[in-house]
Amino acid sequence: HVQLVESGGRSVQAGGSLTLSCTASESTYRSTCMAWFRQAPGSQRETVATVDSNGVTKVAGSVKGRFTISQDNASKTVVLQMNSLKPEDTAMYYCGVYDAYGGRCSFREDFYDNWGPGTQVTVS
Predict the structure, then answer these.
(1) Contact 56, 70 (CB under 8 A)
(2) By the 8 A CB rule, do 68 and 81 touch?
(3) Which residues of the chain, if any, have pLDDT below 50?
(4) Average pLDDT of the chain?
(5) Contact, 22 vs 78, CB < 8 A?
(6) CA torsion angle 109 113 114 120 (round to 10)
């Protein structure tokens, strides 16, 4: 069982930037997919971005060009760099992970079997 801890969420003005980090505890995953998700009040959770152990990334269309995801395999940390933030980016942001066994990372949240408690991002 992998434990995940997110950090970096806070309140920020529109147009600003934030960096979210998620660190995984000791893991036996060999081909880990790590991803960021978000859930706004009254909305379903949506996938924001994924990254695999080779550094291949995918981001949602709603944040493309503004958000980037990166992973440090050695430290089991995934970082979400968020620029040009908009009020609609306000949400609880969650980190998730699963072992893709060398396959591409899925954008479907039901593939992810370990989750962090989340970190709140508020853009005003």
Answers:
(1) no
(2) yes
(3) none
(4) 92
(5) yes
(6) 20
